[in-house]
Amino acid sequence: MAGMRAFGSRLRAKLNRRWLAGGLAAAVLAGGVAWALSPADPGYRTIDERVTVRTGPAGDQTATLDTRLYLPDGASASHKVPALLLGHGFGGTKESVSADAKDLAGLGYAVLTWTAQGLGASTGQIHLNSPDWEVKDAQGLLDHLAARPEIMLDGPGDPRAGAMGGSYGGNLSLMLAAQDRRLDAIVPMITWNDLGQSLFQQSLADKPGDGVLKQAWAGIFFGSGMGGGRGGGLNLDALGATGGDGDGSGDGQGGEGVTGGSGTGDANGTPGDRGGAALDPQCGRWAADVCETYLRVAATGRLDDPARQLLAQRSPATVLGRIKAPTLLIQGETDSLFPLAEADANARGIAANGTPVRVAWFTGGHDGGDGPQSDQDRLKYLIATWFDHYLKGNGDAPANSFTYSRITGLDAVDRGQMATGYQVTDYPGLGGGQTLQVPVSGRPRSIANPPNGTPAALSSLPGAGSLASLISGAAATDLPGQHARFESAPLEQTVSVVGAPQVSIKAASPTGEAVLFVKLYDVDPGGRATLSGGLVAPVRLTGLPADLAQAQPVRVSLPGIVHEIEAGHRLRVTIATADQSYLGPANPVEYTVAVGDGNSGAVTLPTVTATPIATADTLWLYVLLGLLALIALGLAVVIVVARRRHRRVDHSVSAEHADTPLWVRGLRKTYGDFVAVDEISFTVERGQVVGLLGPNGAGKTTSLRVLMGLTQATAGEVLIFGHRLAPGAPVLSRIGALVEGPGFLPHLTGEQNLTAYWRATGRPWEEAQFERALEIAGLGDAVKRKVKNYSHGMKQRLAVAQAMLGLPELLVLDEPTDGLDPPQIAEMRRVLQRYAENGRAVLVSSHLLAEVEQTCTHAVVVHKGRVVASGRVDEIVGDSPTTLLDVTDIDLASKTLDRLDGVAGYAVDGERTLVVDLGDLSRTEAVSALVRAGVGIDRVTPRRRLEDAFLALVGDSTAGSGDR
């Protein structure tokens, strides 16, 4: 696997620079760095031997495998240890994974590495992990382990064993687990599900028909087998397939072990029993059936039925239902050979049996190499905990959660990139937990397929590691006349894509067929386009019309990616005719292509809600935070001592008011000679929505600040559920508040602000009622945007959601409808009423008297720092001379009222309602006059208004320079 060099020398060298950070991390990462801090010399011994195994369809043939066993110090017949089979990548040898094996042995495992049949110093031919050959070889190695006295057994001939490996070795662990139930856990890395689909990729959403041959990767595979890993062929380990330190050569020497096996290889690693015979110049060490298949399909570019069947026999897709060993699937995000879809298919197939499965994505892969050290540390921790539980029985069962990572900055220690890991409780698959539709548009275009696919776009360099990132950032690799572009408007919010985007396209071809390559670019405001991981979606379309108007749209599933698209960037969908990594049609032809319905379409972007995972690269941040915490603690001690010198806090609880959300008596607050609050007393009971009213300067906000513990009262008593109020009192956790407007970190998203707020409370996450709070806020997808891009109304809604986190029993809101439009105000009214109906209580301060009248059950009217009225809203409103009349004839009624003496005035409210100020006229007299005139009266209702009562209580109170 690409990330497994983390087990090796670079980790040990790094420890000398990170010992202090590592010590701090032990507490933060719950033991995750304990492995990283293991001694540089882990303590093991090795045994090299040639092990002969029975192989072949009938099991009547033999192969001699070049093996090395790493035994941890202390392993013996009296101290048995579990074992691991560690397979290498294609073209490698047992040397390729030596660094990994050493570190795993240091963890207390007996690690058996070997060179696969047909490679290096092992005999036989390459059958590409055939169940009849390489998988049987591995079963023979399990037998070999079971016979060793140092290995722990689950039963006769059944070793306590796991298997892991990258690419070729990862596939072997899956195939072996399906064929041999003795495996207790496996960790397949950057490997395939269906080799036919991997090499002949078809990116249509429902995958009908044959795909497009990855000629570059197929050539690398075949070329690696020509020399058999003996120095004459490419070694995929060296290309990042396993990340080992192999050089593609056999080890060239025999070895002896406890079973007495021996070997006589020459300096080039050529097996002695092959007698130095020349390799087949056309097939090398490939088995005849595999070689013939490659030569045939590479010439035609089509996956025929015999080839499909042969590759299916080497693919986990056909045997996933038989895998019972708990499986940790690790896949690279920068991998044009085996993209994330391969691990996704494996995960779904294995989990369908009820087998424990965990999926982890990392930033490397066949094209991306190891990934940053922070990414490697995360993966090694996952691997260690997986095997420790399932092979040693240590710790709780690892969660079946999903983890992934993305590049988030620079590592100040290593001067390289830093990757941040994220965790999601449930694996969402490539479709993500949520989706976002981004419209793209552009006119249909005619594009040309060049003869023999030359020249062609360059999207990626297979196995190029860090060079792939240079290609992915170069949009100029799409050649003029050979591609069409369709773009979106600038995004209004930052989107973190996690999964496989999708887009519909249409195509027409005079031949009825087309091979197309669909790409998704991230285009910044300066026009620089980035192709995430250099990944493209090849599609082979058949049955096409010659006229685009007759074409039907097809859904293309783009490669799975992890990529953050910032606000202000645009999406670009490119449809190209040729790519250097794939084999397309040889004859020149012209296609017509479009997105969606022909003029516009939409890209579906999958997203997830994830929690960041702390890594070793953040440890120095924890050092700084620790120092700040010490400073804060010192200040807190000084404050506490100072307060205790002035007063002792009464912690007694009033049983009489233990179920009363708020009880206020004689509240007074002064600032020197200025009296902000003179004397205020009121009560808020469960089920009530209480409005705190008063003109500017009446003392409303000062009262709320005292109630929230933000300032101390000069005199008076405040009880919250019977507890006497004091700043920082634990009972304040039962209150949610919005006082003096919202305050958020502008560079974070709304969701991140809410999460940070709740984390700071120290309360369990499951108590946050996060989804309910977001539903109340009504921000929708805007919660993913940075707060600096919010309007005032959006910030207000976010603040209300923050106050409601945890669904507190008492909600205190200061002007909650400030900045909201009328529909949002109406929705807020319903929210507060429903909130109180469930046994909770709400105290709301507002200057919108009509809203208080419609929202609140009770009101407290404050004037000049004192309560001038309190009680039910309808009791405070009282009676009024204004009357509502519902009549049958609005015009006739109006003319009649015009002739009546004493009517002070009236207004029309709707089609049938009059609002009449009767003045000195009684209601009976007015109604009688209307009836005599022939007007039908359906309803007579006295009009009551809080505004009238408010003005009567406080008069024309316009003085003051702001609320107190």
UniProtKB/TrEMBL annotation:
Alphabetical list of InterPro entries matching this protein: AAA+_ATPase, AB_hydrolase_fold, ABC_transporter-like_ATP-bd, ABC_transporter-like_CS, Galactose-bd-like_sf, P-loop_NTPase, Xaa-Pro-like_dom, Xaa-Pro_dipept_C
SUPFAM superfamilies the record matches: alpha/beta-Hydrolases, Galactose-binding domain-like, P-loop containing nucleoside triphosphate hydrolases
Statement: the UniProt record of this protein carries the keyword Transmembrane helix: yes
Domain of life of the native organism: Bacteria
ABC transporter domain segment(s): 662-889
GO molecular function, one term: ATP hydrolysis activity
Family matches, as PROSITE patterns: ABC_TRANSPORTER_1 (PS00211), ABC_TRANSPORTER_2 (PS50893)
Keyword Transcription set for record: no
This protein's UniProt keywords: ATP-binding, Hydrolase, Membrane, Nucleotide-binding, Transmembrane, Transmembrane helix, Transport
Chain intervals for the UniProt region annotation (Disordered): 244-278
Segments passing through the bilayer: 619-642
Ranges of Gly residues composition bias in the record: 244-266
Record-stated family: Belongs to the ABC transporter superfamily.
Protein name listed in UniProt: ABC transporter ATP-binding protein
Annotated source species: Catellatospora bangladeshensis
